[in-house]
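User: quick one, sequence for these C-alpha cells?
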C-alpha cells in the first residue's frame, strides 16, 4: 500500500478521480502546482498498480480520460476516512496539516 500511495500528489489525484472521471488537462488545472511530467508519472504509476483506468476518447484530437478502476473504487472508504480525520483533527494538531504542497 505504501508503494501505491508514495509521493505527495497521488492522494490529491485520487481525490479528484473519486469525484468523477477526469481528463489530463482538467487534472492539471485542478492541481496547479503539479508539473506536466510529474502528473504523467503519477498517473502511470497508479495505472500500473490498477488503481486508475486510462481511456482514450474518440474525439478529434483524441483526449484521454482517467477514472478509478474497480480496485481504485475499493479505496474510496479509506480516502473518506482520511478526509474525515483531516477535517476533525486539523485544528487540534495543526502541525500535521501544514500545507506542504505549495
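Assistant:
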Amino acid at each position: 500500500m505504501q508503494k501505491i500511495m508514495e509521493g505527495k500528489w497521488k492522494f490529491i489525484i485520487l481525490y479528484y478521480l473519486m469525484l468523477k472521471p477526469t481528463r489530463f488537462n482538467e487534472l492539471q488545472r485542478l492541481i496547479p502546482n503539479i508539473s506536466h511530467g510529474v502528473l504523467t508519472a503519477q498517473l502511470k504509476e497508479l495505472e500500473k498498480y490498477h488503481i486508475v483506468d486510462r481511456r482514450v476518447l474518440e474525439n478529434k484530437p483524441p483526449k484521454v480520460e482517467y477514472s478509478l478502476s474497480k480496485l481504485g473504487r475499493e479505496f474510496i472508504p479509506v480516502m473518506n476516512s482520511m478526509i474525515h480525520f483531516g477535517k476533525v483533527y486539523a485544528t487540534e494538531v495543526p502541525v500535521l496539516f501544514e500545507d506542504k504542497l505549495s
